[in-house]
Design a protein that fits this description.
- The C terminus is likely disordered.
- Helix 4 crosses helix 6.
- The strands form 2 sheets. This protein has a 6-stranded mixed beta sheet, with helices on both faces. It has a two-stranded antiparallel sheet with strand order 5-6.
- It has one domain.
- It is globular, with a radius of gyration of 19 Å.
- It has 8 helices and 8 strands.
- Belongs to the ComF/GntX family.
- InterPro entries: ComF/GntX_DNA_util-trans (IPR051910), PRTase-like (IPR029057), PRTase_dom (IPR000836).
- Keywords: Glycosyltransferase, Transferase.
- GO terms for molecular function: glycosyltransferase activity.
Length: 241
């Protein structure tokens, strides 16, 4: 298609499905520079704002790229629940960069490394048209590989029965934990693992994923998410000034 016709097609498409930045609503752009900027930040520790993570022993270090507020919240919500699949082109590379920056802090310099996505429920994946944690895990594995680790995605967890994500923290916390699948990859020796999810609020999902891996050769050494929300009784995020 010649450029003139392509331009006309884009304009007609925008009349049917308007394009706007999911963070600030600026029209005619997939995302603006200002709302893209937070996704270029290096990941920082966020477990102090996720009170459920204190239930783990030993503690699990968790990192996020940005606080779940304002334009960041709008962008993540648009990708997850507003059909903006094109935002994978923004958030996937952001996760890859974050994982590459995080690699030196994981304490692993050689050998295999597993990236384990927190399980998405089948109903959510069907509604969204994409398995978001799996996409993010793939991006994180690519970033770790770029940093010199032999990282592979290992989707070994499946959701437990009972309460679903989005049912409220109390129901989610009491529901059966995700389980390691019977047909999952089973290494013969301990392998460090990075848990990956889209966001962390109380930390319940990450805790349950880590507990589900207990007794398996996969040993969680940290968790990485796109964005983190401050816990209800915790202090402010520790982030760059």
């Amino acid at each position: 298609m010649d450029p003139r016709r392509a331009g006309i097609a884009r304009r007609l498409g925008r009349l049917v499905v308007p394009v706007e930045c999911p963070g600030c609503g600026e029209p005619d752009v997939r995302w603006c520079e200002a709302c893209e900027a937070p996704w270029w930040e290096a990941p920082l520790r966020c477990e102090s704002g996720a009170p459920r993570l204190s239930a783990l022993e030993p503690p699990l270090a968790a990192w996020s790229i940005a606080p779940l507020e304002g334009a960041v919240h709008g962008t993540v919500a648009a990708w997850k629940d507003a059909g903006r699949r094109d935002l994978a082109a923004l958030l996937g590379p952001a996760m890859g960069r974050a994982a590459a920056a995080l690699a030196p802090q994981l304490g692993v310099t050689a050998g295999a490394f597993a990236v384990v996505p927190c399980p998405a429920r089948a109903a959510h994946t069907r509604r969204r048209g994409v398995d978001i944690p799996l996409v993010l895990a793939g991006a994180a594995a690519a970033g770790l590989s770029d940093a010199g680790l032999r990282a592979l995605v290992r989707p070994v967890l499946a959701p437990g029965g009972g309460g679903a994500r989005g049912a409220g923290d109390r129901l989610r916390w009491r529901a059966p934990a995700p389980r390691a699948t019977r047909h999952a990859w089973r290494p013969s020796h301990a392998v460090p693992a990075l848990l990956v999810d889209d966001v962390v609020t109380t930390g319940a999902t990450l805790v349950r994923a880590a507990e589900a891996l207990a007794g398996t050769p996969l040993v969680p050494v940290g968790a990485l998410v796109l964005a983190s929300a401050q816990g209800p009784t915790q202090g402010a995020h520790v982030r760059r000034g």
